Amino acid sequence: MYRNIDWLEPWDSLCTEGSSFERQLYKELGKNHKLYNKKVTVIGRRYDCDDFLFEVNDTEFKFAVVHLTFSGRDETGTYPRTKLYKDLDDWINRCMIPDHNEF
């Protein structure tokens, strides 16, 4: 589906099956989190940290970058840190390109 993204370092597609990262996200989401109870699909990862790019279904925003904590439990407060993007171009321009330029 998103295999035609021209990934820029440090972002890349997953080199493994993504369901384990989706399960980890669901473990970490508290009831007040923006992605709570949303269907997501992981499509990419920033390989120098634990940031993951998720496609989000049935919302006004279509993509989210989430910094997973791998704590294995519901997080509270601002965790897991999440930034929302209205579409793929929004993510590319406001996230991937700036991350690449700083890398």
Keywords:
24% helix, alpha+beta, 103 residues, 5 strands, globular, 5-stranded antiparallel β-sheet
* Major sheet size, sense and barrel closure: 5 strands, antiparallel
- The tally of strands reads 5
Strand order of the biggest β-sheet: 1-2-3-4-5
Order of helical and strand elements: EHEEEEH
Q: So how many helices?
A: 2
Shape summary: globular
Mean pLDDT: 91
- Radius of gyration over all CA atoms, rounded: 13 Å
> Into which percentage range does the β-strand content fall?
15-25%
Q: How many discrete structural domains?
A: 1
The level of helicity is 10-25%
Give an overview of the whole structure:
The protein has one domain (11-102). Helices cover 24% and strands 23% of the residues. The protein contains two helices and five strands, in the order E-H-E-E-E-E-H. The longest helix is centred in the last third of the chain and has 15 residues, at 88-102. The protein is globular and about 35 Å long. 24% of the residues are buried. The model has no long low-confidence stretch (mean pLDDT 91).
